[in-house]
Amino acid sequence: MCGIVGYTGAKKASAILIEGLKKLEYRGYDSAGVALQHDGRLVINKAAGSVADLEKSLDGNYKSIKVGIGHTRWATHGRPTDENAHPHCSCSEEIAVIHNGIIENHHSLRQWLKEDAGHNFRSETDTEVLAHLVEEYYEGDLLEAVRKATAKVEGSYALVVISSREPGRLICARQDSPLIIGLGEGENIVASDIPALLAHTRKTKVLEDGEFASITPENVDIFNSEGKLLNREIFEITWDIEAAEKGGYDHFMLKEIMEQPAAVKETMRQRINTASGKVDLSELGLNGEELTRLEKIHIVACGTAYHAGLLGKAVIEELAGIPVEVDVASEFRYRNPLLKENQLVVVISQSGETADTLAALRLSRQKGLKVLAITNVVGSSVSREADEVLYTWAGPEIAVASTKAYLTQLIALYLIAIYFGEIRGNLAPETAAKLVKNLRALPEKLKKILSEESLSKLRKYCDHLSSWDSAFFVGRNIDYPVALEGALKLKEISYIHAEAYAAGELKHGPLALIVEGIPVIALITQKAVFEKTLSNIQEVNARGGAVFAITQEGFNDVTKQVESVFSLPPVEDILAPVLAAVPTQLIAYYTALARGSSVDKPRNLAKSVTVE
Ligand code: AGP
Questions:
Q1: Whole-number mean pLDDT of the chain?
Q2: pTM of the entire predicted model
Q3: In this structure, which CATH number among 3.40.1010.10, 3.30.300.30, 3.90.1150.10, 3.40.50.10490 belongs to the domain 254-440?
Q4: Contact predicate 106/88, CB 8 Å
Q5: Which residues line ligand 1 (CB under 6 A)?
Q6: Which of 402, 490, 600, when mutated, tests ligand 1's pocket best, judged by the most ligand atoms within 8 Å of its CB?
Q7: Distance between CA atoms of 466 and 468, rounded to whole angstroms?
Q8: Class for domain 450-595, per CATH?
Q9: How does residue 104 score in pLDDT terms, banded at 50, 70 and 90?
Q10: pLDDT tens per residue, range 509-522
Q11: In angstroms, what is the span from residue 402 Cα to ligand 1's centroid?
Q12: Hey, how many other C-beta atoms are within 10 angstroms of the C-beta on 500?
């Protein structure tokens, strides 16, 4: 949830930390701080506010300092105040700690440290216990002290610790929260996420759960929990630095929406055999016999990824003939799900670090089920712990509101449905071939939706929508998950209260809320339920609701009934959600702009939810 950067080398550490924290700011926004190692002491500078505020307060000072750690915080334990900002220090101020995660037993540790060991606490955070614990165990070797301290701790952590007594050395520890070490020439850098490293190096070593690292400008040594030195392979990052920046757009979200045709294409690439026209997911170690035996699939995810899962259910049931249950991960993990043999769990997570999704994955594996992960981040916890991984090749997604990752999750689910369906003999080869052809045509159709003409139409509609505090999204069949995702996107970044309903549910309650002019965004892309949805639109019209319909070109009856219509390029009905999602993303974007809200960093939210 928070952002972590540590540097040791020959350059000005504060500038490198600030630059890295800016790249990670999307992970935690309420406060920021650095601890710099200088002349046998630690210089701490931290406050509630943004990284830019921190940069101002440093005011170009500390030019000669070449070692330090920095942090951006998203509050979990303790309010966003100056005192609660990281780094946290030991009583002597000789040890400073930055931490991402949650120390679950911090109450009892704090009590022990205060009452029995005489430590003085300055903050309300769980993290501060770590600084005092390390101090308690310090006997001249920081690595050993961190190892002893973490042995007392229950919970999750990515930690970087420095001591004024050990110049040039950073000590790291990881449990259930990511830490990646970037390798340089005469310098090394550690961070909780890749964008903070890219300006410096592409060579990395990933720290695994239960491991520790000792980092100096010349060396990176990784140890297991018993203190054994490990040999870790170098992992080369292929992302372009530009890919992690805005690329000329006003917001990451808009840039990421615009990248969708490429992201969709990339996710299909190498998974569709152009010669045979067949989906080939042999990269997954699932054999035909296993797939034929499958009796049920459980899809587990959170937020937007959960909405992708709802569409996944419909397409897998339709194309592969396998019953699918979809669960929100935070419910799944606590509801004692009936997991049996011949079942498969599919977890979906853009970041691959969502705590509840990871817990659901672990629970499923404990119960002996195979887990297939759909994720966007290579080397993420989900990708490393799942039995099989199908990566979405969306590239780094920085905006909190997920767009391109969502669309590529849908593509991954179509690929799975077609592949499983063909192997199981549920999908006729000619039906599969037609679907594949139509899938491959999606990027071009997406480009049309992203044309300036479409954008200006949506901008105009959002001028109306932005003056309302409440809106509805409705749809039937596979339009319904798109409606759910559209409503989530709108509330997430424009702060308009938006609700999605299966259109047939309107008359069972929500119709009471339809008043003159209220915005209702109706998804009507499915021929099978076209007339039914049209009737629902008429019910809204009759009560004065202002319907904006998202439909397919050629569905002319909609245009007769509704004032504002956005027509998608014609598409095979089952694939329509991939196109229909895009105008809903743009509606959220332009409405947020019109209301002046913070598009890329909505209040109270973070990109990667690594705590429960
Ligand atoms: C998306 O717009 C949201 N910010 C959020 O719902 C997100 O999809 C959810 O937290 C799951 O994240 P993940 O895909 O990284 O697991």
A1: 93
A2: 0.78
A3: 3.40.50.10490
A4: no
A5: 302-305, 349-351, 354, 357, 400-402, 492, 608-609
A6: 402
A7: 5
A8: alpha beta
A9: confident
A10: 999 999 999 999 99
A11: 6
A12: 26
